[in-house]
Amino acid sequence: MSHHQPRGPATPAEGHARDFEYIDRRDALEKWVREARQMLAGGMQARCCIDTEADSLHHFQEKLCLIQIAFDGRYALVDPLAIADVGPLIALLDECELWIHGADYDLTMLRKAYGWIPKTVRDTQIAARLVGHRKFGLAALVESVFGRNLSKASQKEDWSRRPLPETMLRYAVDDVRYLLPLADHLGEELRTQNRHEWFLQSCRSLQAGVAARSISPREDGWRMQGAGRLQPKGLALLKAFWEWRDSAASERDIPCFRVMSNKQMLDYAVEFEAGRRIAPPAGWRPRWKRDFSEVVAAIAASDPASWPARLRKARGRLSDEAREHVEKLCRFRDEQADRLGIEGSLLGSRATLEQVVASSTGIEELLPWQRDLLDTGLKNLPLNGGEQLQQ
Predict the structure, then answer these.
(1) Residue 163: is the preceding peptide bond cis (ω within 30°)?
(2) Four-way CATH pick for 317-390: 2.60.120, 1.10.150, 3.40.720, 2.40.340
């Protein structure tokens, strides 16, 4: 980072007039888009920043609740709960280079809501990590680069409430207010360090990953992380708890974790299959306690033949020789990362490097810039596909 601290945009003080527009009518959205198009026609650079807010901490079905936009110093908050069709806005954004911070979640929400993946996405979080920032949350970067403190007070609020209070609206605007100045600052650092091409490749990979990911709920979603250690008896209870929790959360329109967390369900399943008595949390409502006991009794009385089977992993485990190759490649990766002043995981996670070693096609998991930096380490590995596996 340069020693000179750049100036960011000014934030209106509390009580001062708004410098943003709240848009909750289709005609107002169309007017805003027309004005933006006029600015583009006048030669304005086609760059725009967006952010989104949802209500996953407060409701059973997560909804997109707000779209924040920064466009050449103009700020708008678009209400997707009031405007069903934001097509004019999407068409405009597809003509722009779209900057987002930590874009994965926002892109996923926009795809779920509108079936839309923006054409050109640039992620300031990726840029920050590639130039060596270890604290790469938006608030940390704004403080580091501009010396401004962003409020986090509304981070966990219910964004589906209407009307939204002024404090939440101002919080939402600040999530896009600094993005373009931050993008310019980080872009200069990327070019100075000859890493701009790394950035472009990484952003394209992010877009492709979100586009390829299934957004349909998994039928076996109850096979959560940690379930692999359970026997069929424990899996049967875990599945039954998962289904009951969905029903209870849906009925009260609350997030599933407010009924019972994944960890709680796993812990109960472990105790149950060990033959120990389990009881519902003391603070639960009486009906939930009854349901809990009925679910446990039903599984205890069920036919073991009906219990879910443990899943066997499709691929074999790495041979001792292959594990040694992975360790060598991880050490080489970390040496390269230390030299560059970035996190080792940016050059490839351990899981990715295991794929590289275990499969003749694993190298495709790495981006070209990652392959270039790991080239020497990769040349020293006998990448023999299946020969690296013990079946």
Answers:
(1) yes
(2) 1.10.150
Q: What is the pLDDT of residues 152-168, one digit of tens each?
A: 888 899 999 999 999 99
Instruction: Give per-residue pLDDT as tens, 370-383.
Output: 999 999 888 876 65
Give the bridge partners for 121, in sequence order: 98
Q: For residue 372, give the nearest of 333, 342, 326 by alpha carbon.
A: 333
Q: Do domains 20-212 and 317-390 have the same CATH topology?
A: no
Question: At which residue do the structure tokens 């495709």 appear?
Answer: 364
Alpha helices in the chain (DSSP H): 26-41, 87-93, 103-114, 124-130, 138-146, 166-177, 179-192, 196-212, 232-252, 262-273, 286-301, 320-340, 350-358, 368-379
Residue 113: exposure state from Cβ atoms within 10 A (0-12, 13-18, ≥19): middle
Hey, where are the domains in the chain? 20-212, 227-306, 317-390
Alpha carbon 328 to chain centroid, angstroms: 30
Superfamily of domain covering 20-212:
Ribonuclease H-like superfamily/Ribonuclease H (3.30.420.10)
pTM for this entry: 0.89
Q: Left if phi > 0, otherwise alpha if psi is -120 to 50, otherwise beta: which for 313?
A: beta
Contacts of 46 (CB under 8 A, 6+ apart): 40, 95, 96, 97
Closest CA to 372 of 233, 218, 201, 255: 201
- In sequence order, what DSSP letters do the residues of 2-26 get, joined into one string? -SS----PPPPPTTSPPSEEEE-SH
